[in-house]
Design goal:
Layout lengths: L8 E6 L3 E8 L2 E9 L8 H22 L4 E7 L5 E8 L3 H12 L10 E10 L4 E10 H13 L2 E8 H11 L7 E6 L8 E7 L2 E8 L17 H22 L7 E5 L5 H10 L4 E3 L15 H10 L31 H10 L5 H34 L13 H23 L5 H4 L2 H4 L4 E10 L3 E10 L4 H17 L1 H6 L2 E12 L2 E13 H4 L2
Parallel strand pairs: 1-4, 4-8, 9-12, 12-13
Antiparallel strand pairs: 1-2, 2-3, 5-7, 6-7, 9-10, 10-11, 14-15, 15-17, 16-17
């Protein structure tokens, strides 16, 4: 099997257990392949190198059978390899936007920007007068690994994108109405891959979340026996509830109007009943009818590859390219003239002809504008004089005082202001401390209650919340991770020297078991008040 002419577009998706590749000629699928692979998981470096070499040999062998020479591919990667964040910024000049985005992005990512390849897209919210920023990044070492694997197979990476964004092109292809605020789930419960959840506002991503289909110990739920299919479905339902709830808390004023599913037909009755119980209109998107060459059975990995291959054909409402970030500095157009530079300016001046009538008319217009200005200035001057005459007299300051006396009075007022400022600063403020708590919460942890106590010498902060991950051990790790994140906060950790978990217990909420916890943070009041 051979690829057609090199003019076709190639999309490659690296899933959890399978590498998928699709080449298209215009919108028609020319070739599609799925390469099963063993992901290197060995802890020993020597063994890991062997597994990596085996994976490289497999990819090289498979791609050499089917690829055309000098192929440039669009690489689509899952959420585990991508960092996608959305946040808001005030409207600002274009030349200040780059540094503002870089500064704000540091609040939402756990890595240094120097370790990342990133790009961003800015969309203006005209109603609220805010900039909505869509930020995408990938770690440089992750990109280097994929680049090495594909380069050894003779494939050059032209662009890298988030796999959920690749699927969005299928909405354009199938003319799906994406007006308004819609939710989109990309689901293949029969495969080992993750589930994508996106919320779009007129086609622009507001929110994204990846749902891994794994059970305890990282086992792949899709590979379990049929007896566990109900457990898989229940886990997926729980994750949908969590995702929708988290979105609604983040965007309370942007309610989802409709939910779309890209899903296999075997789970449609269950999904339809469940989503309608949540109160959302539901529709299923049949993608296989357009890309029949991929197969009649849904293969989400191939669909992601297909969407990536369409990147040069179908456009989305935003553009992100972490490999080749777009140039954001506005270019300044230079004047052109014969010979360029000073010669051009000279030639331009030589071409100007002066008409005496035009000069007279120009002088008259200027004189008329000056007289009108004087006429309008008179009432303003009169009003200004009236305002001065109505100024209240200050008994402590006389117009006859000398400069030294005025300086003494000024110093006296400054001293009073300083005393007032000292009184204000000595009050207790904790807003700055609480600012870091939301960013310290891992996914799967929520706060229920925050209690602050103080006396003359000490301050105490109680944080009560819940953790949910499907099993007790993972939930305990999430609580410990939250505690470690609090200890690592520069300001919070300086003030609250003593932080510990004082209570952890499992309680049943609805049909799910969740872990309730309490973290006690103690500090000295004088430190908190600084």
């Amino acid at each position: 099997m051979n690829w057609k002419k090199p003019s076709g577009s190639l999309g490659i998706y690296f899933g959890g257990q399978v590498v998928n590749a699709v080449e298209v000629d215009n919108k028609k699928v020319v070739t599609s392949i799925s390469i099963p692979m063993k992901v290197p998981v060995a802890a020993d470096s020597q063994e890991k190198n062997k597994e990596e070499a085996a994976l490289l040999a497999l990819l090289t062998s498979e791609f050499k059978k089917i690829k055309s020479p000098s192929t440039s591919a669009v690489l689509s990667l899952p959420g585990k390899d991508f960092i996608i964040r959305t946040f808001e910024l005030p409207v600002m000049p274009q030349d200040e936007l780059n540094s503002a985005v870089a500064f704000e992005a540091k609040k939402y990512i756990p890595f240094k920007l120097e370790e990342l390849m990133f790009d961003f897209h800015v969309q203006l919210d005209r109603i609220n007068r805010r900039n909505m920023v869509l930020f995408a990044a990938i770690k440089r070492d992750v990109f280097t690994r994929y680049q090495f694997l594909l380069n050894q197979s003779g494939i050059k990476i032209g662009a890298v994108e988030y796999s959920a964004f690749s699927v969005l092109r299928l909405l354009n292809l199938l003319r799906v109405n994406d007006r308004g605020i819609i939710g989109l789930f990309n689901v293949d419960l029969s495969a080992e891959d993750e589930v994508d959840f996106l919320v779009l506002d007129n086609g622009y991503p507001l929110f994204s979340r990846d749902i891994p289909l794994t059970m305890r110990g990282g086992a792949d739920v899709s590979r379990q026996e049929n007896g566990n299919s109900e457990q898989l479905i229940e886990k997926f339902k729980t994750e949908i509830r969590i995702s929708v709830d988290y979105y609604q808390r983040k965007f309370p004023l942007k309610r989802i109007e409709k939910v779309y599913f890209i899903s296999g037909s075997n789970y449609r009755p269950m999904l339809e009943e469940f989503v309608k119980d949540l109160g959302y209109p539901l529709d299923f998107i049949d993608v296989t009818r357009y890309a029949a060459e991929i197969g009649t059975v849904l293969n989400l990995g191939l669909l992601r590859s297909y969407g990536a291959a369409l990147s040069g054909i179908l456009k989305t409402n935003f553009k992100l390219d972490v490999v080749n970030p777009r140039q954001r500095i506005m270019s300044v157009k230079k004047p052109h003239g014969k010979g360029g530079g000073a010669a051009g300016v000279g030639n331009l001046a030589a071409d100007i002809k002066i008409n005496p009538k035009t000069v007279v008319v120009g002088v008259l217009i200027c004189a008329l504008a000056f007289l009108i200005g004087l006429y309008r200035l008179k009432p303003v001057e009169q009003e200004f004089a009236n305002i001065i005459s109505m100024r209240p007299s200050v008994t402590s300051v006389s117009v006859d005082l000398s400069p030294d006396e005025l300086t003494t009075i000024n110093d006296s007022y400054r001293k009073r202001l300083k005393d007032l400022e000292a009184l204000i600063k000595k009050q207790l403020y904790i807003t700055g401390l609480l600012d870091g708590i939301p960013r310290s919460l891992p996914d799967g942890v929520w706060l229920k209650e925050l209690i602050f106590k103080k006396d003359d010498t000490n301050a105490e902060l109680l944080l009560r919340g819940i953790a949910y991950a499907g099993d007790n051990e993972t939930e305990m790790n999430l609580v410990n991770s939250f505690l470690n994140n609090l200890r690592g906060l520069p300001v919070f950790g300086d003030y609250f020297k003593d932080m510990s978990i004082t209570s952890v217990e499992q309680n049943k909420t609805g049909s799910s078991m969740m872990t309730d916890f309490e973290i006690n943070c103690k500090g000295v009041k004088s430190q908190v008040a600084k």
